[in-house]
Structure of CDP-alcohol phosphatidyltransferase-like enzyme:
Amino acid sequence: MNKKVFCMKFTLEDVRSRTYKARDAWWTVFLVDPLAGRLVVAVANRTSITPNQITWGAFLLGLGSAGCFLTADPIWLAAGAVLYHLSFVLDCMDGKIARLKGTGTVLGGWLDYVFDRIRVFGCALALMWGQYQATGQDLYLLLGIGIVFLDMLRYVDALQVTKVRRQMRRTIRMAYEAAAPAGSRSPARSPLRDDPDLDLDTNSDSQEDYVRTAEAVDLQVEFHSRYAWYIPFRAWLRAHRVRTHLVSGIEFQMAVFIIGPLLATLSSAMIIAVTIGAAIPLLAFEAAIMYKLWLSSRDFTRALAEIRGTRPPHMAGA
């Protein structure tokens, strides 16, 4: 008797609803996801390619991009830029397929992160060393070091900021639970308001901290009171799935490894201009995140003091 094999057919809507992040970098939202989403549908439905295999493919394309950059030839620089973008498209696909099929692994997440860092390091070294060899300008060597430093700074900072925000929210929740009446299993009211800066994936199981009620604790009161214009701007970005961190590590990489090499076909000096031009807003947004986190910590201190029936340290004696 013949056996029939039935394969689940995924649609583009499945990919969008089950794998897209609630908020992502604007480069990814507008320039990568439209292509990556359609490729995911084709790969998931017609092949048995695994997420780890795609991760390796992205890594090899990244190495190919570095090889092109090393030549310092304008045509090869443009080819390297194209390869880097394709590498990033594949890099976005592996996670989507893993979430879509439920085949993600710890090893896959580790490979993805490590290969990303190696790709940035290799492309930065190749691009700037190639330009140094072609021009003899020491500035390119400094820029190469700066690119690697900023890339690591951004990722380490992002992890730590998220960790601090989560910790503040956990502390608020625990304080409410401790203050709840004896025998009560939960606080009398929902303790926390949605924090748009955590950028959780749509399929995250950590949404229990996210409530949207008028009486919830808001850890961004001070920031919003000072910058009211930010609220409608943020709402517009969220409606389009775009993070408010408009120049993140992703945009910085794309500027350095795609826009810069493409413009270098006109003048090699454009690599310097684009790299510095992308670094400045990246650092500015990082500073803004630190400032916003500081204001949130003040809201956190006040909220915690209210829950515990004490006064914040900076209000003592007021």
About this structure: The first helix runs from residue 12 to 19.
